[in-house]
């Protein structure tokens, strides 16, 4: 772990700098560019802080839907295998595995929670307060 400022603090400072620059921009186009940069930095900060937790929640949902599997070691392999498991879920959906009531309910709950977590990273003001539906 790095000493202070840590990555989260640096991203926060960069975002604040960009927002401040947007308020003092020379024209609307420059203001827009600074706002886009500040928003992008905010997304990076939230992804840095929340992605691992949300990936683990998505993995657990997939465990319930397509069967349990241990999480692989290493973030890169974890992300790769999560995508592969999502592709397996797509194939199971296409095969009609979730066409009955209880299975469909589990699928819808998983998809809803996964999408809400993605929105919490990309645009948290638009995300519902609770992922439970």
How much helix, percentage-wise, in residues? over 70%
Rg measurement, Å: 19 Å
Overall geometric form = elongated
Unreliable segments (pLDDT under 50, ≥5 consecutive)? none
- Tell how many strands the DSSP assignment holds: 0
**Computed structural class:** mainly alpha
In terms of DSSP E residues, the strand content is under 5%
Order of helices and strands: HHHH
Number of domains: 1
Mean pLDDT across all amino acids:
94
Task: Provide a descriptive summary of the structure in words.
There is one protein chain. The chain has helices at residues 7-23, 28-66, 75-94, 101-122. The chain is mainly α. It has one domain.
Briefly say what this structure is.
The protein is an all-alpha fold. It has helices at 7-23, 28-66, 75-94, 101-122. The model has no long low-confidence stretch (mean pLDDT 94).
Which helices and strands occur, and which strands form pairs?
Layout: H1 7-23, H2 28-66, H3 75-94, H4 101-122
Helix pairs in contact: 1-2, 2-3, 2-4
Throw out a few tags for this protein.
mainly alpha; 4 helices; 0% strand; elongated
